[in-house]
Each structure stands twice: as C-alpha cells, then as structure tokens.
Amino acid sequence: MIDYFVFFTILAMATVTYLTRITGYLLLHNKVLNPRLGKVLEAIPGCVLIAVIAPAFATTNIANLLALAITLLLASRFSLLPTVIISIAVTALLRHYIPY
Q1: Which ranges does the record mark as transmembrane (predicted)?
Q2: Nearest to 29 by CA among 85, 83, 21
Q3: Environment class of 78 (CB within 10 Å of its CB; exposed 0-12, middle 13-18, buried 19+)
C-alpha cells in the first residue's frame, strides 16, 4: 500500500531538485564563464560531498568510521561518481554487517 503523503513528498523533493539543477543550466548556458568561476563551479560537487560526510567524523559508530576511511581513500584515487557509488554501497554493507 502506497502512503500518498510519502509519495507526494518524494515527488515534491524530486521536482525541487530538478528545478534547482535546470535553473542553473538555463541561466548560464549562453554565458562565457571566466576561468575562475568555472573552477568554483567544478569544485561545488566535492564541497557538497564533504558537507554530507563531515558529520561522520563526529561519530563513534565503527561502521561509519570505516566507511569514512574507505570514502577518503576512494576520493584520493577515483573521480567523484565512482567514489560516491562505491562509498554508498560500502557504507550500506558495513552498517548491515557491523552492529552498533
């Protein structure tokens, strides 16, 4: 049975996420960016990733600490997308198999 409140909440969140992404594209697609602004925009995904994983530094949960160490190792070796995908999978496995 589908909970309609949850369904519409997820749908609204997806819509807002899409609108924030497409708005940036629509505003900047005909603009020539200066190299400094281009570098700043390229750094944003990494900053967001750090903001997401930074609370894991303050945990005592072994699974989270191991996942954090693995994520940092992956980030030093791979680009953002493989790092995120592998880190999510590793974190899920560690949280499942290592009790708190």
Answers
A1: 6-28, 40-59, 65-94
A2: 21
A3: middle
Sequence-distant (≥ 6) Cβ neighbours of residue 45 within 8 angstroms: 80
Contact 91, 63 (CB under 8 A): yes
Interval 58-92: pLDDT, tens: 888 899 889 989 998 999 999 988 998 999 999 99
Question: In this structure, what token pair is assigned to residue 47?
Answer: 């900053």
How many Å is the maximal CA-CA distance in the chain?
52
Q: Which tokens in the block code for residue 15?
A: 């819509």
Listed in sequence order, the DSSP H helices in the chain are 4-28, 35-53, 62-77, 80-97
Question: Do 56 and 44 contact (CB within 8 A), yes or no?
Answer: no
